[in-house]
Amino acid sequence: MTTIEIGRLLRANTAGFVVGCRVNQLEAPSFGALVRVPQVDGYQIYGLIHDMHIDDDGLVRQLVTAEGVDESVIADNRLNRNVPLEMSVLVVGYAEGERVLHLLPPRPPLSLDQIYLCEADEIRRFTAAGRFGYFRHILRAKEMPVGELLAAHLAQAQEAHTEAGNHGWSDAATQELIILLRDDYSTLMSVLGALGDALPGKA
Amino acid sequence: MNEDQPKTIGYLVGGGLKENLRVRLTVPPQEVQEGAFVIIESGEWLYFGLVTDLQLGATDPRFADEQSETRLPPGMARLLHGQTLYTTLEVLPALMLERGPDLQSPDYPRWLEEIELGLREKPHPLPVKTVPPHHASVRLAQPGDVAEIFGKTSQEGNFIIGFTREQGHPVCINLDKFVQRSSGVFGATGTGKSFLTRLLLAGLVHHNRAAVLVLDMHNEYGFEDTASDTGLRVPGLREKFPGRVRVVGVGKGTTIRNQPPDFNLEVAMADIQPQDIELLTRELNLRETTSTVLDALVATFGLGRWFAEFKDMLVGATIENEEGKKVPAPHSVEAWAFRTGVHPEAAKGLHSKLGVLFRRAYIVEQPAADTVGEIIKSLEAGQHIVLSFGRYDSDLDYLLVSNLLTRKIRERWEQRTNAFRTSGEDEPRPLVIVLEEAHKLLNREMAAQTTFSTIARELRKYYVTLLIVDQRPSQIYDEVMSQLGTRISGWLGDDDDIRAVLSGLAGREALRSMLARLQPKEEVLLIGWGVPMPLPVRSRRYDDRFWEELQGKSSSSRSSDQILKELGF
């Protein structure tokens, strides 16, 4: 199981949480990546990164308007900034031991819990469980760029499945999305448009 | 495809008995055609239906409007189309059949036992009275399903009339049932009516349960003919069934296709009755006074002599009386008219118009033999007659001879049936009279006057039925059409003809468009009482293979006893 820690929990509710991290931790996670929050007794919460935001502070505001700022000052401000980088995560399921459930967790993670990036085998395990039940959490979140998030997630997950020789996972996932969205023409076409860009050679 | 596991083509999504059932297709629409025979499986019941329409649908009209294959990668567009664009079948439910519990279920042996003990009715196809549930799976009929409904090809009396359109499974009609009621073969000209009739006649003669009298107006069925479209040789019934079929030519010395018939028909003048003449009103352009003159002729000379006497009368012949005045001669039409009080001009007019009949060589005062009686005897004795009109192929001859002969046959069969019912004599042999160009005898004006409409309506009880062959069914009297049991129709274009063929049947609207889209010369629609459910079929070819299958099968399956019996031992 991966040990790539991407940050600690800032705030949470049942449906999502926000991770704070340092700049030097920002290279590992990516938009659409699957992350997990280990809890006690083998209980873990899974989520998809759907937003990353970098807030300003007073010093940044001054530096933005200053002239001839030295590179070392910029580097110092980035590395030793007071305000953390934030990643918003959509909760898509949880696991109890070996059992993966695409349901909202019984309780949210606690602040300062460590967040880890899922590796290929974990991605495969989570995404192959059930019949894509976690898609409903994504499709319900209207405020998010659903198409982009699904495209990024499907591309990453297919890569993990391809490593294990399963080339048809994204086809099945796309089919499920079509079934779920066939009564919502505009959302479906937006999602498929994004998927077409993310998986040009697949589907 | 594995025959043990029939391929599912879709599942039931809605509909009802009145508006037909709707089935979502899960295979490409090209795999199913209008008119396909489908089975809907639902638990212990099978429902048999007919595809009457295929409709394209979309979960949202925009999926159909947008050509998404140009916007999405091909694989993704395919997945999208598979889920959002679909084809719906409209299925006319026709029959239902109980098939019992699952074969592996412990209830199955119990179910079988109950049937064997008579506690439960043996399953047989029933008219559909309920609907299968949602999502019941639908498949195309297998050979066993077709045999279950239309009968097994191996069963005596079952005749393969054609094959299902998609998979070519043989479809039978039961000839014993076919001859129980009058039936019809319809189709616009050039759609293969004559070949279909030939097939049926060959089947009927071969099965040999009913006598067949073919009123062959165009000399097509007795001897060898040449197909008008392909130019190929078409064998005749006489050639293929030399011992069973006799060809009769109308008129002495008549040859049919340059071959002599078995004997010639001559009509005795005594057999011609006034109603035979009235039947020819249109052909002879007769006037309203005709019936008065005919009544007077019968009153003067009697039913058996009036025609001959009238023929011998002279028109305009005069003699001088004692006073030297010219008066009508005693044997003139005028003299007879004066004697009987008939208007002389009316009598002269009728005599002039009947001149066409007076000159007909087949109408004789004293026939050399009782050929009409010979025809009836042959039919009673188990032979089949093709009455070819030879050179007398005008409507006038056809109407006169057909009606006269059929009247005699009707009298004989009625007499025999009454004897069978009252005195316990032999049961009459069923007789099928094949009537070409039937609208000429069974149109609205003529139907009341000819014997045929009576046969179509009532003579089923007297073992006589009609096989009507016609291209304009709309011209046939409704009352006759509604009595037809089995109807076999090729392509029809005219709305009135289509309406006439489908009159009195359930699901007319659904069948209407099917009839207009049949492939000419290739496909026919089986409908009516004589078939368990309507079905379009690819008709059987009337070729050498057909004869091999028909006669080859008979030669191997007939026992020596049967052959000896047929030879008269």
How would you characterize the overall build of this protein?
The complex is a heterodimer of chains A (203) and B (569). Chain A is 38% helix and 25% strand. Chain A has 203 residues and is α+β, with helices and mostly antiparallel strands. With 569 residues, chain B is α/β, with parallel strands linked by helices. Helix content of chain B is 35%, strand content 23%. Chain B has 23 helices and 25 strands. Chain B has a 12-stranded mixed sheet. Chain B has a 6-stranded antiparallel beta barrel with strand order 1-2-5-4-3-7. Chain A binds chain B through residues 171, 174-175, 178-179, 182-183, 185, 188-189, 192-193, 195-196, 199-203, and chain B through 59-60, 62-63, 66, 68, 71-73, 75-76, 79-80, 82-84.
What is this entry, summarized?
Chain A contains 7 helices and 7 strands, in the order E-E-E-E-H-H-E-E-E-H-H-H-H-H. Chain A is of the alpha+beta class and 203 residues long.
Counting DSSP E segments of at least 2 residues, the number of strands of chain B comes to 25
**Helicity range of chain A:** 25-40%
Task: Tell the overall outline of chain B.
Answer: elongated
Radius of gyration of chain A: 18 Å
Mean pLDDT of chain A, to the nearest integer, reads 90
- Low confidence ranges of chain A: none
Main sheet: strand order of chain B: 9-8-25-24-23-10-22-21-11-20-14-15
Instruction: Give the number of helices of chain A.
Output: 7
Low-confidence stretches of chain B: none
Total DSSP helices of chain B: 23
Shape of chain A: globular
